[in-house]
UniProtKB/TrEMBL annotation:
One Pfam family here: Flavodoxin_1
Keywords: Electron transport, Flavoprotein, FMN, Transport
Superkingdom of the organism of origin: Bacteria
Functional summary from the UniProt entry: Low-potential electron donor to a number of redox enzymes.
Family: Belongs to the flavodoxin family.
UniProt protein name: Flavodoxin
Domain Flavodoxin-like: 4-140
Species whose genome carries this gene: Emergencia timonensis
Cofactor dependence: FMN
Record-level Gene Ontology MF annotations: electron transfer activity; FMN binding; oxidoreductase activity, acting on NAD(P)H
Entry keyword Electron transport: yes
Length: 140
């Protein structure tokens, strides 16, 4: 069975709601899913998973959250080459620039991006929740 980690940071719960749908989609697709908050995950866990979904909202000025998520993700980047991943997150007033930069970074790291990145404005609506489920399923 495919082992999938869903790793996310969320300040006000929007990205957490997305993470729950990603996990549900991966489970529904038959995956063995474990969810982690950013502070609970580290690069040495990467080898234990066939695929990883990373979720982080747009923070700072179109940045990944800097205290917990960004340092953890920077370490994980060393293990992204050839790894099946998905990216998701919520944003507020911007246009999704943080996700475009983040995706480019992962392409440079030679990750295998299994599904189009999923972004949504503030709380995920029905369409975004379905897109998160599809993302989760694509990782199985
Ligand atoms: C400190 C801070 C910085 C933010 N910076 C941005 C930003 O640069 N661009 C943007 O679109 N939204 C920005 N936002 C809005 C959040 O991305 C948005 O509220 C998101 O839904 C939060 O997700 P969460 O509930 O998972 O924490 C910022 C929010 C905070 C609190």
């Amino acid at each position: 069975m495919s082992k999938i980690a869903v790793v996310y940071w969320s300040g006000t719960g929007n990205t957490e709601q997305m993470a729950q749908q990603v996990a549900a989609g991966a489970k529904g697709g038959g995956g063995d899913v474990t969810s982690f908050q950013a502070a609970e995950f580290s690069a040495d866990l990467m080898d234990q998973y066939d695929a990883v979904a990373f979720g982080c909202p747009s923070m700072g000025a179109e940045e990944l959250e800097e205290d917990e998520f960004a340092p953890m993700f920077e370490q994980c980047e060393k293990k992204l080459k050839g790894k099946k991943i998905g990216l998701f997150g919520s944003y507020g007033w911007g246009d999704g620039e943080w996700m475009r930069c983040w995706e480019d970074r992962c392409i440079d790291d030679e990750a295998v991006i299994a599904h189009e990145c999923v972004i949504c404005n503030e709380a995920p609506d029905d369409e975004a929740q379905q897109a998160c489920k599809d993302l989760g399923k694509s990782l199985v």
